[in-house]
Each structure stands twice: as C-alpha cells, then as structure tokens.
Amino acid sequence: MQTVIEFDPSYAMLTVVLDPGESIKAEPGAMVAQQDVEMKTGSAGGGIFGGIRRMLGGESFFINTFTADRNGGQVCLAPSTPGDIGSFALPTGRNLFIQASSFLACTENVQTDSQFQGFRGFFSGESLFFLRAFCERGDGTVFYNSYGAIKRLPVEPGKELVVDTGHLVAFSDDVEYSIGKVGGLRSLLGGGEGLVMKFRGNGHVWIQTRNLASLVEKLIPFLPTPDRGQ
Questions:
Q1: Phi-psi sector, 184: left (phi>0), alpha (psi -120 to 50), beta
Q2: CA–CA distance from 142 to each of 2, 115, 160 (Å)?
Q3: What's the confidence (pLDDT) of residue 58?
Q4: How far is CA 120 from the centre of its chain?
Q5: Distance CA 190, CA 182 (A)
C-alpha cells in the first residue's frame, strides 16, 4: 500500500492507496472519502471484555476494515480534532502504547487491545487504559493522530524524560513510566502545571504540542448556562 499524509501539521489527512484485495483498518468515523473499496465493520478484537476495555480507554468497540476491489482503490482518513498524523513501523513482537483517542488506523496484520495502567490512571488525570498495538506475524504500521503537531523525544539510559499527561500521544515498550508532579505542592496548585509522566529506559515518547483538556477548560466560561441564557 502507498500512504500520503497531506495538510500537516494543522489539518492532516491520511490518503491510503490500496492494491487489489489489500486492506487497512481504521477507527469508526475516520473516513473522509473512499473509492473502489468495500467497508466492513467488525469487532476490534479481544472479545467482549477487550471491547469494553477499548471503550474505557476512549476508543470504539468496533473497527472498520477497508478492502480494495479487483482494480485497487483508495481511502482518505482524518481524525476528529485538528492536528498532525504520524506513523510507527511496528516490528513483530514489539508494542506501541497509545493514549486514548490518538489511534487512527493500522495495517491489517496489526492487532490492538487495551493495557490497564493501574490506579496510576486515576492520579494522572487521563484514561485508565492505553491502547496497545502489536503484530504477531509480520511487521506492520500504525497511524496515530495528535491535537497539534507531533514531536518524537528520545528516552536515554540514566536520564528521565518528564511529559505533561495532557501532551502524551504514544510511547514504545522499552520505556517505563511513573506518575508525579513538577516542583512542590505550591507548583501543583498555582504554577499552572498538573501531574506529569516520568519516563525512564531506552526508547521513544511521542508528544503533541497542544492539550485538548486545557482548551476545553478555557472554553467552559464562555458556554451557555441557565443563568446566562442560551
């Protein structure tokens, strides 16, 4: 398959050109346009409990599979928020952990389920689950989206990378993380910084330049209320 990411980083769209019989899987609602492909909606895998975990993680219970007809076809995919789209080459036996709502699409041989992050999720202010993408047979590709632009940061041995929870997109399986804060209690309450994720190991973390939760917080004072009227 051939893929092209257009209009990045602000309003990115992924166009996938499929050979005859070739398929790509995508989140429901991601399709912008399609030509000469058949779409089927099915379970995202992992059975009922796996689907429930995906829903708790901010993803859909279902996934759409687009398959080109005998002449080949194409499909255009885009996330629901303005921002960038990135791709991750996923070797067999490796995992990519993706924050809720950042998964866009993947090649047919990539499987997804949800990884419970324990009660750290309560304290991080984010979802209790990360989406885990992996391949059991053959290498695959995962496409993920962000709110704003995407930047890949290395995690080096012996060093700690600190990321605000609202800016995390994804991380590789060769890093570990803990939940903490920057500075003391005064910084947490009045410094404008919330809880953070502290990464250690030898891998990579992907971040987004904008925080959707912060945008929502700024918009709330302007939303209609019964006191202000409609």
A1: beta
A2: 14, 17, 26
A3: 53
A4: 19
A5: 12
